[in-house]
Each structure stands twice: as structure tokens, then as C-alpha cells.
Design brief:
The chain has no helices and 9 strands. It is an all-beta fold. It folds into 2 domains: 61 residues, no CATH class; 81 residues, Sandwich (Immunoglobulin-like), CATH 2.60.40.1930. The protein has a 4-stranded antiparallel β-sheet, with no helix packed on it. Strands 3-4-7 form a 3-stranded antiparallel β-sheet, with no helix packed on it. β1 and β2 form a beta hairpin. The protein starts with 27 loop residues before the first strand and ends with a strand.
């Protein structure tokens, strides 16, 4: 549990920063807003909103496998894909294609389940197709719109 005073040094990567949601039987929308700022200049900041829609059902123990649709679509600086795969394969990749079919970005999918953060700040504004590829075969494809604000 954070006391709200966590520090991540500039130009560094911190993999310990995470958000955990335990709905304990309550369903509906939930969100968390993080404000990240420079301690020397608090006006220099960026906000990140994480949103969930918690659902429950009789089939909630049925395990679904695959890749989610992008959680932020349209995306500005990034989007997130959740994934739950039957098995982890070293060839599992997320590949981004522009509308001409040219591969513009690729990233490994580590492990059987988790969340992938796809940085979109380096992509031009427009529409892209994002494919999940395993063992050289396309398993799923979704549309992603990049719109820089």
C-alpha cells in the first residue's frame, strides 16, 4: 500500500510500481488516477487513469484465453493489452501494422498471462492493425487508433 510519497528516479525504470484491485464481490466501474510529477517542479506533471469494469457471473470460473482489445482506444501515448494464453511460447509476439500492411512495431509477449503496455507516442496519428502471433500464425487482430492530443 502506497503512502502517496513513492519516488521513481528520473530516467529509470521501476517494475515494482503496480495497482491491485480486489473487488470482493462488488461489481461495476472502478478507476484510479495517478499523478506523476517532478518534485522540483510540481507543475511539470502527467496524469494516468486506470479504469476497470468489474463483472461477475455464474461462469466466472470459466477460463478465457486470448488477448484483450486495447484498453485505451484511441490511444495517445500508450495503450494496454491484457492477455491470458494457454501456454507461453517464445514466439508469441504483438505486431503493429500500418494501414498499408507495413510492420511498424513488434514486441514479445512474456509468459502466459499479464498486461502489455504498448507505447504509441512514437507512432504517427492514424489507424493501425495489431496482431497477436504465435508459432508464426495470426491468432487475433484488433484495430487501434492513435490520436495525439
Amino acid at each position: 500500500m502506497s503512502n502517496g510519497l513513492d519516488t521513481i528516479l528520473g530516467n529509470s525504470i521501476d517494475h515494482s510500481f503496480k495497482a491491485t484491485l480486489s473487488p470482493t464481490g462488488v461489481f461495476g466501474p472502478a478507476s484510479i488516477h495517478y499523478r506523476i510529477f517532478d518534485t522540483d517542479n510540481v507543475a511539470d506533471s502527467i496524469g494516468v487513469d486506470l479504469a476497470w469494469d468489474i463483472t461477475t457471473s455464474l461462469g466466472e470460473n470459466d477460463e478465457a484465453f486470448g488477448l484483450s482489445k486495447p484498453l485505451q482506444n484511441p490511444a495517445d501515448a500508450f495503450t494496454v493489452y491484457n492477455y491470458n494464453l494457454k501456454s507461453a511460447d517464445n514466439s508469441d509476439r504483438l505486431i503493429v501494422f500500418n494501414m498499408l500492411g507495413t510492420k511498424v512495431k513488434s514486441m514479445d509477449i512474456p509468459g502466459k498471462s499479464g498486461a502489455l503496455v504498448l507505447t504509441t507516442s512514437d507512432l504517427k496519428a492514424g489507424m493501425y492493425m495489431v496482431s497477436y502471433i504465435s508459432n508464426g500464425k495470426v491468432k487475433d487482430t484488433s484495430r487501434l487508433v492513435v490520436n495525439h492530443r
